[in-house]
Write a structure and sequence with these properties.
This protein has helices at 15-25, 41-49, 63-68, 70-77, 89-103, 121-136, 145-154, 180-189, 211-223, 239-248, 266-272, 287-294, 307-310, 325-336, 339-356, 359-376; strands spanning 2-7, 30-35, 56-58, 82-86, 106-111, 139-142, 163-165, 198-202, 229-233, 255-259, 275-278, 299-302, 317-320. By secondary structure, the chain is an alpha/beta fold. Helix 5 (89-103) crosses helix 6 and helix 9 (211-223) packs across helix 14 (325-336). The longest helix is centred in the C-terminal third of the chain and has 18 residues, at 339-356. The termini are close together. The mean pLDDT is 93.
Length: 377
């Protein structure tokens, strides 16, 4: 079976993990990529480095480019058995859905978003398109049970047999506890003291990730006299604004900005952290939670979307309502003062993640789904 996969621009932090999953999901079938973004050397170079025979086409950034190329996409899609949209279900999934109906092709849409409570004209239009896609699409894949529940609730839609929950999956060979020497090298490089617990954040910093809430929680901990460092892995155009906010709170000495780190190096950072924190306002899954547990570091995170699927509250970590800086600080503090609790949560969390989110098992679920479709062609 030949598959055309349409996806949006890929962030700097996501090239390796995105295609690692692609190669696992589609390992039994031929697939080509259509990327709704500008030409990206990182993508091309990575695929070449993996010696994969994949055709890649970049359509350019933005909705106008997508609409401009629509007639050619219709012609191109005729040569494929299955059309697949990876994330960005609005607008990319909606467009691919329309093309699939024109050509009478099977269509799968993987939903990679999380409901927003904002009300703007743009968001209202997206919701109408989303409702159409959810009710008319052939197969819809969600990243987590809670993401599916929240999106269906927002659209006032009941569960349907063509809805599937398949988590992104974690490569256990890539995420594991680093050696003491590897951790010590990082400690020495960034002058991290042993008596200062390290709160780690591994994300692309932007408003939806709740960085301001983490800063407010850090201020509360600082006023209590707690010693700690916050290490942030990732970069974005919002970094300067967050640094200004940190400076206003007189917390500059408590925060270390490491910037983007290669995916294959992240296990060292998770192993360095004493606690991983993810205070997002919404997450379809939240990969850094499972990645952290595989490196034996416990988590405190928002009780939203796929995070809820990965953390059992007060058993493997702590869940806090999004936006509650005071409660976030309380849960972080509980872990700071109790190393044994951190070890217990880390042990339980790793066992839970290994049982639920193995990338190879996820790949088998996709294979079963594709094989079912192939049998019907």
């Amino acid at each position: 079976m030949k598959i055309a996969c349409l996806l949006g621009p890929i962030s700097e932090n996501a090239v390796e993990p995105t295609f690692e999953r692609f190669f696992t999901y589609f390992k039994s079938h031929k697939f080509d990529l259509i990327i709704c973004g500008n030409f990206d050397n990182r993508v091309v170079d990575y695929i070449k480095s993996q010696k994969k025979d994949i055709n890649i086409e970049f359509l350019g950034q933005g909705i106008p480019n997508l609409l401009f190329h629509s007639p050619r996409l219709i012609l191109k899609a005729r040569s494929y058995d299955l059309l697949f949209t990876y994330g960005g279900h609005i607008p990319y999934g909606f467009l691919m859905h329309i093309i699939s109906k024109i050509l009478k092709k099977r269509f799968i849409c993987r939903v990679n978003s999380y409901p927003s409570n904002r009300k703007t004209l743009k968001i209202n239009i997206k919701r109408k398109l989303e409702h159409h896609l959810l009710t008319k699409g052939d197969i819809i894949i969600f990243n987590s049970k809670n993401q599916m529940r929240d999106i269906l609730s927002r659209n006032n839609i009941d569960f349907r047999p063509n809805y599937h929950v398949i988590a992104p999956g974690i490569n256990f060979k890539r995420f594991y506890k680093a050696s003491p020497r590897e951790v010590e090298i990082l400690r020495a490089k960034y002058r991290l003291k042993r008596d200062e617990p390290i709160l780690g954040v591994c994300i692309t910093p932007r408003p939806g990730k709740g960085i301001n809430i983490l800063i407010e929680a850090a201020e509360i901990l600082h006023k209590k006299g707690r010693k700690f460092k916050v290490v942030i892995i990732g970069t974005s155009r919002y970094n300067s604004k967050y640094k200004e906010f940190i400076n206003e709170k007189d917390l500059t000495n408590n925060f270390i900005w490491v910037g983007h780190q290669p995916n294959h190096q992240l296990y060292k950072w998770y192993s360095l952290f004493d606690i991983t924190v993810l205070p997002s306002w919404g997450e379809s899954f939240g990969m850094s939670i499972s990645e952290s547990y595989m490196c034996e570091t416990p988590c405190v995170a928002s009780n939203v979307g796929g995070i809820n699927d990965q953390i059992i509250h007060n058993v493997t970590g702590f869940l806090v309502e999004p936006g509650n800086a005071r409660k976030l600080s309380e849960y972080i503090d509980k872990m700071i003062i109790n190393p044994e609790l951190r070890r217990l949560f880390a042990k339980r969390g790793k066992e839970y993640v290994k049982d639920k989110f193995d990338l190879n098992t996820v790949g088998e679920k996709y294979k079963e789904l594709f094989d079912t479709i192939n049998d019907k062609l």
